[in-house]
Amino acid sequence: MTEDRQISIALPTIRRLPMYVAVLEKALQDGQTHASSSQIAGALGLESIQVRKDLAAVGVVGQAGVGFPVGELIVAIEKSLGWDNASDAFVIGAGHLGTALAGYRGFARYGLNIVALFDSDPAKVGQTVHGKKILPMEKFADLAARLHVRIAILTVPAEAATESAALAAEAGIKALWNFTPTKLAPIDGVIVERVDLAASLAVLSSRLASLVGASGAARPQAADEPESEV
Amino acid sequence: MTEDRQISIALPTIRRLPMYVAVLEKALQDGQTHASSSQIAGALGLESIQVRKDLAAVGVVGQAGVGFPVGELIVAIEKSLGWDNASDAFVIGAGHLGTALAGYRGFARYGLNIVALFDSDPAKVGQTVHGKKILPMEKFADLAARLHVRIAILTVPAEAATESAALAAEAGIKALWNFTPTKLAPIDGVIVERVDLAASLAVLSSRLASLVGASGAARPQAADEPESEV
DNA sequence: TAGATTGTTAATCGATTAACAATC
DNA sequence: TAGATTGTTAATCGATTAACAATC
Prior knowledge:
Rossmann fold, 2 domains, homodimer, alpha/beta, Arc Repressor Mutant, subunit A, Redox-sensing transcriptional repressor Rex (chains A, B), cytoplasm (chains A, B), DNA-binding, seven-stranded mixed beta sheet, transcription (chains A, B)
């Protein structure tokens, strides 16, 4: 049996693991069998000690004087992340963002397979985007159960987030990837991971503001060209 | 002159500030003039002491026995974030994600105004999405300079990320909001904030994997009972 | 005054970084 | 053997949490 103690890897470490996979795959393509912590760190702008600590957390041992086995490492990381066998997912909300995510081919790399989209708008239902059908919300629970879908990607408008999340939980969804600006209240038995654009933009704009503030007064931009209404 | 010491607010605090704004605006609509740290914390699932520490960082003082002044707080937070006067932004890459972001009306709330999109694909150039024009990359530098645009939103394919970032930096862009899966090398004088979907999905799927692993072999769960537990 | 709540100072916790002996 | 690199143990750093006197 495998060691199976993937629980309890520190969250910051888990967030860095995908970067390691990317770097290691490049190394693999270059024909490298081993990569040292300092090589990996260099490629990512990290410290080598942090790489060693992170890799220790996924349970791979390196070879002193040589480095870490690249192939083995990729497999171990993907196992830790649950990326070793693909998971099906439903998208709830076939708006701009939902259809964009449904069309993103890169998710396959992360073991995520978007099966279908759901929307409450009858005008959208029946359409096909990126080869995936938009289905009515009424069919969600039944299909989630029949197809054993455990992941839902939430891309509905902010006002509909809470209700959609409840419906998904009811339907047996175990993990919600929340792209809405709504912070959901905890739901028993459901993992919620939020992509918080406001938080990310807050970091960007506050740094920009302090940069501008440092170099002089904030100044209005020239009213010229298309100001374009939203 | 204003106090102007917005530098050095801790990053975790900055990430939480937008949530406070959301809660405070709701309080304002309910006619509240003041909100206590425990009220705010309760609405967000945080500890009151953390709220007080965060609000202290933006420089607003509360009133013992009463709470914090709601309106003043909103203004102060928005100032800290640079959300007090809107910034224009360009989108680079008019693919699914780029057009989705260009159509998201919620950004106005964060002082972000998407002016136009740019793409290197001649087939896309000339089209209009959500009332915004798709322009050729060749015009980027000139327009960025003329309109004093400092923010670019990067939604090109992974392979084009580095090149596009360099072009943006060349054109005087000061802040890059990077939605590509590529981790950019640091660029002198340019702030880069990345929306790392792989990192977010890693957290989601690893938690899901350990949840399934904990309850026995990886098995299609009964579409019934909550499996509970964090 | 009495109750509620702030803001400060100290304690705790967890992650990052440093140092270096062990090992290939 | 000599050089490179790991993994362990300890030190540092920063953020969160606790306790409580000050204050409205």
